[in-house]
Amino acid sequence: MGRRARRRGRLHRQQSPGTPATAAGGSAARTLQAEYHLAHSTTLDSLARRLGCRDHDEVWEQLFEDRGTSDIRAWQGFFADTLAWAALARLDAEREVLDADSTHAREAVMAAALRERLPEPESGGSGSGAPIVVVTGAFHTLALLDTLDATPEAAWLPEPELRPDGESWLIRYDFARLDSLRGYGAGMPSPGLWQRAWRARTSPPSGKTDAPTGPRGFATAVILDVVSALRDTGEPLGTAQVRATVEQALGLAELRGRAWPGRTDILDALTSCLVKDDTGLSGNLGAAVATVFAASDLGRVPAGTASPPLVAEVRARLRALRFTLDDAAERRVSLDTARKPRHRERRELLARLRFAGVGLARQVGGADLVAGTGLGQFVEEWAYAWTPMVEASLVRAAQEAPTVDILVRLRLAERLSGEIGAAALAEILTELALMGMDEAAEQVCDALEAALTDLSDLAELAEVLHRLVALVEGSGRLRLDHARPRLRIMLRRGTAAVARLVAELAGLEDDQAAEAVDALIAVRDLLVRLARTDDDDGADESDALGASGTAEVVGPGREAVLREIDALRRARATAPVLAGCATGIAANSGTLTPQEVTDAVVARLSPGADPAALADFLVGLVRTSPDVILRAPDTLRTITRVLTGLDEAGFLAVLPDLRRAFTALRPTETHHLAEQIASMTGADAARIDVVWNVDSSQAAVGLQVERDLVASLVRDGLEQWVGR
Fold first, then answer.
1. Residues 6+ apart with CB under 8 A from 17
2. Are strands 168-172 and 331-335 parallel, antiparallel or unpaired?
3. Coil, helix or strand for 384?
4. Distance set, CA 568 to CA 44, 260, 504, 580 (Å)
5. What's the burial of 379, exposed, middle or buried (CB within 10 Å: 0-12/13-18/19+)?
6. How, if at all, do strands 380-384 and 361-366 pair?
C-alpha cells in the first residue's frame, strides 16, 4: 500500500573498515526494532480481548488493514489512527525498559538527524527551509514529537552516539525480508499479501466479464495460488474444495465485520477446508501458504539514483547474460557448459559471485567439480536470487573493491593467507577453473606443489589427485590453458608419492590397516581415472613439457603404483584386509588374471588357516573388486567350500566380518550372489536372499531352541537329520 512506502526502501549504510558486518548470504534481516512493546502492551492486549482477536497483529488487521477502501485513501485520518495505535503501546513502556533495549539510544540518533535539518537558525540546523518529510516507525514518532516540543520526556533520550563513517546508499528491499514471520522483528506478518490486497482494491477491472472482482476476486486469486502450489506437490485438490474455501473466507470476513477478507480469514478458511488432521498449517500446506503470502516483489529506487560501481557492474553483467533481477525469487538454470560457450560464461560469473561470498548463487546439481559429484554429466544446475541481502553484501564489498574481478582476487588472497593444506588448495584451484580465472591459478599451483611434497597421508593425497584428474577430465568446460602443464607435473609427482605411501602400508597392525582400506579404495578409483585419462588424452595432445600428453607424464607413475600394490599383496607382513584390497585392485587393473585371483584366494584357504584372517581378506577383496566374487565361479566355489566346512562355532565367529564384507554389494548384486550360492549348495535362493526383521531377544530365544533341538536329535542317534 502507499502507506507501506516506509517499508519498501531501506537505507543501507556502508560500514567503515574494521566495523563488523553481518552475513548476508540468504539470511533474514536482523533488526533491533522488534515489535516487543506492541506485543506486550497491556492496553493493546485488552483491546484484543474486547475485539475477539488473538493477538496485536490481528487487532491491527481488524482496525487498519480491513477498513473500507475510501477510509484507507483518507490518509490523514489513517496516519492519525496509526499514531494513536503506537501511543497506546508507548503508554505501557517504562523508561528503564526503553533504556535497556536501546530504544532511546536509537531515537537519540533519529532526533539528532532531524535537528540537523530543521530550518530554524536557533536550532543549529542547516536546513534550507524546504518542507521536511520524516519517515519513521510510529512507535518512535512520539519520541521525535517530544523532542520537537521540548517536553519533559525529551530528556529521556541520551546523547547520540557518533554515526559510523562511510557513504550511504539506497538499495531495493522486498516483502519477504520485511515479514515478521521470517525473522524481521519490526515487521508485520505477510506484508506482501497486504500489498496484493491494496492492488486488488485500486487496480482497474481486467475487462474479463466472468472474472470475479472485489473481495471475492481477491480471496479467489489468493486461494487458487495456494491450491496450485499444493497441486504441484501432488496434493489432489478439486474445484469443490477451492469453492468451499473461498466461501468460508468471505463468510468469516462478513462475520467479523470486515470490508475485505484478511489474512486471518483466509488462513482460517484454508485450515478449515483443506487440513485433514491435527497438523494445522504445516507440511505441504504450510509451505504453499508461505510461498504465496511472502511476495518476492522488489522495491524500486528512483531512476538515476547513485549506486556503488561494484553493484552497477554486477547488475549490468548479470542482465547482459540474461539473468532475471526483477524480483527476489530464487530461480534455477541448467547450463550445458561442456558444449555451449555462452553457458560457460554464465557459469563463470555465477561462480565468481559465489567465491566472492555475496550470497547470489549456489550450485544445486549436475556436474559439480567442487563437490566432486555428477562429473559424468554435461549439465550444471545452479540457483540464484537477486535479494536485498545480495545488494547489501555488494555495497559492503564495494568499500574493498571497485570491480568483481578485483573482489575475487581479494577473496583469493584472504583464502591463501596463513597455513592451508593441499586439499584446500586443490579446491581453490578447482574454483578458479570454474570462474574462468586460469591466469590467477599460478600462485595456487606453486603453493599446491609445495604442499604435495610434504603430504604423508595417503587418503588426503588421493583426494587431491582426484581433484586434479577432474580438472584434466573437465578441460572442455573449463579455462585451463595456463594451468594444464602444471596439473600434469603435479599428477606425475603425486602418483609417485602414492606409490611410496602404498609401500609403507605393509606391516600395519589390524586397527591401522582397517583405517587404510578407504585410502586404498580411493587409490583404486584414481588408477581407473588415470587409465581413462591416458586413453582419452595421451595419443595426440602435446604441451609445454614436450610430452605427447597425459599418458607419458602420468603413465609411469601409475605403473609404479601398480607395482607397489602387487608387492603389498605378496608381502607376508601385510594385514589380511589390505592383502584383500591389493588383490582386488590388481584384479581390477588387469595385473592378475582370473585364475591368478582364484589362486590367491585359495592360498588364503589352506588347512588350518585363521577364519578371522580369511574374513578380513574377503572384506578387502569385496570392497575393492566385488566382481572377483560375482563374476568368477571358480573363486566363489572355492570360498563357499571353505566356509561350509567350518563348524558352527567357527562360522559364527567369522559371520560379523562376512556381513561387513558383503554389505558393500548393491541389492541386485546380493541377489545374484545368493542365486549362485544356492545353485552350488542345492538350496532355495528365495530363502537365502531375504531380510528378517526380528527382535534380537526373539532371535536369541530361537537360536537356543534350535541348539536344544539339535542336541536332542544327536542324543537319540538322529544326527543325520541335522547334517552330521
1. 399
2. unpaired
3. strand
4. 79, 80, 9, 10
5. middle
6. antiparallel
Q: Which residue has the cell 578441460?
A: 475
> What is the C-alpha separation between 368 and 366, in angstroms, rounded?
6
Q: What do you get for the CA distance between the two ends of the chain, in Å?
A: 89
179: Cβ–Cβ under 8 A, 6 or more apart, which residues? 187, 188, 189, 190, 191, 192, 294
Contact (CB, 8 A) for 216 and 251 = no
| DSSP tag of 187 | S
Q: Tell me the three state secondary structure of residue 297.
A: strand
Distance CA 611, CA 648 (A): 12
Quick count: other Cβ atoms within 10 Å of Cβ 552? 16
Kindly calculate the radius of gyration of the chain based on its CA atoms and give it in whole angstroms. 36
- Give the chain's length: 724
Q: Are the C-beta atoms of 533 and 471 separated by less than 8 Å?
A: no
Distance of CA 280 to the CA centre of its chain: 27
d(CA 628, CA 644): 19
Query: Distance between CA atoms of 392 and 360, rounded to whole angstroms?
Result: 11
In the three-class reduction of DSSP (H, G, I as helix; E, B as strand; rest coil), residue 343 is classed as helix
Tell me the CA distances in angstroms from 474 to 287, 370, 376, 462, one per residue in order: 38, 12, 9, 18
Half-sphere exposure of 676 (CA within 13 A, CB side): 18
427: which 3 cell numbers? 579446491
Give the type of residue at 97. V
Cell numbers for 81, please give them.
Answer: 489512527
| 3-state SS assignment for residue 670 | helix
Locate cell 540464484: which residue? 384
Q: What is the 3-state secondary structure (H, E, C) of 543-559?
A: CCCCCCCHHHHHHHHHH
β-bridge pairing 168-172 and 361-366: unpaired
497 Cβ neighbours under 8 A, 6+ residues apart = 452, 455, 461
31, 116, 540 from 113: Cα distances, Å: 19, 5, 72
Of 201, 173, 172, 328, the residue nearest 261 (C-alpha): 201
Residue 157 φ/ψ, nearest 5 degrees? -80, 130
Under DSSP, the state recorded for 205 is P
Q: Which amino acid is at 251?
A: G
Cα–Cα distance for residue pair 253/214, rounded to 1 Å: 13
Query: For residue 612, what are the contacts with CB-CB under 8 A and spacing of at least 6?
Result: 653, 654, 657
Q: What is the mean pLDDT of each run of 10 residues along the chain (724 residues)?
A: 35 37 39 54 84 87 87 89 86 85 90 83 58 86 90 89 72 76 71 87 71 87 92 88 94 91 93 84 85 78 82 94 90 93 95 95 93 87 92 90 94 91 93 90 90 91 92 80 85 92 91 90 90 58 40 70 92 91 90 83 70 82 87 82 78 77 82 85 74 76 85 82 68
Could you tell me the CA-to-CA distances from 298 to 172, 256, 325, 330 in Å, in that order? 6, 33, 9, 13
Q: How many CB atoms lie within 10 A of CB 716?
A: 9
707 contacts: CB under 8 Å, gap ≥ 6: none
Rounded CA gap, 43 and 252, in Å? 26
